[in-house]
Amino acid sequence: MPSPSFPLLAIDWGTSSLRGARIAADGQVLEQRSLARGILSVPAGGFEAALDEAFGDWRAQSALCLVSGMAGSRQGWIEAPYCPCPAGFAELAAQLAWVPQARSPVAIVPGLSTDRGGLPDVMRGEEVQIFGAMQWSGLSDGLFVLPGTHSKWATAEAGRVHGFRSFMTGELYALLSQHSILARTLNADAPFDEAAFVQGVTRARDAGGLLHHAFGARALTLFGRLDANRMASYLSGLVIGAELHGAAPRPDAPVVLIGSDTLTARYARALDVHGVASRRLGAEATWAGLHALARTLD
Fold it and tell me: How far apart are alpha carbons 33 and 29 in whole angstroms?
């Protein structure tokens, strides 16, 4: 196992995007770079070449490359394992997937898995963000929420993730807004309407469930109570509100939101409707997590 690990080349390689950073031993992010070069655009056997094309100059100056995200999936570079919860840095470090025959040390971070009553759940990439958020915020316990295509709600205790739940919120919103009958009654390019969003979040708290409330959105447009420019925000509030209704966060348990400014702002507003306080973190959580994992190796 290589040591020391710095300077570190930290990579977040997802389905549709590739992000990287050069990180010093003290955690300072020296440089960042982002490309639309997700794993689905890389041919079989082409991951090392793609990494060099994007970050070859940084790799030449780095002692180690740590990769998180979907690069460790079956469609990625090599398949990394899932660490069963509860898990912390020690478990991640022990199950790193070292890329064989790479021209310099490259390790892919394992994902996490959990099992609730015989129903398994998995994450890849989010685990690094959660551990990074712990480092960044100084919290070792709490509820960490990562909005996205498949949102994650993770519970941490004593610096370890004890379990989590996934919600297909972003994917469902895309399906409803692009491929359902609702797509004909909304303007996807309209600016965000906070009032319509809150109306959707509030509606999701009523009895009936998302399937009923989604059809209700169509009825609102038929009777002129919701126009196309407000519909997208209302629908966003409806699906996010349904997620919050299912997750049932407690008002006495503050939430740490991790993700893009746009999504975390919406979730913070939705949580506010539910009377739940929150704080927000962005990309810094990923780099803090990979830096802390590299320190664990050293």
Answer: 11
Q: How far apart are the C-alpha atoms of 170 and 152, rounded to whole Å?
A: 11
Q: How do strand 278-281 and strand 255-258 relate by DSSP bridges?
A: parallel
Tokens for 231, please give them. Answer: 């519909």
Rounded average pLDDT per 10-residue block, the chain, 298 residues: 77 96 96 96 96 96 96 96 96 96 95 94 97 92 96 97 97 97 94 98 97 96 95 98 96 92 97 96 92 92
> Rounded distance, CA 59 to CA 79, Å?
22
Q: Within 10 A of 50 (CB to CB), how many other CB atoms are there?
A: 19
Sort 269 into a burial class: Cβ within 10 Å, 0-12 / 13-18 / 19+: middle
**CA–CA gap between residue 126 and residue 190 (Å, rounded):** 30
Tokens of 175: 């399906």
Token representation of residue 12 = 């977040």
Cα 114 to Cα 54, 65, 85, 104, 123, distances in angstroms: 34, 27, 5, 33, 9
- Give me the helix-helix angle, 126-137 and 284-297, nearest 10°: 90
The crossing angle, in degrees rounded to 10, of helices 194-204 and 228-247 is 40
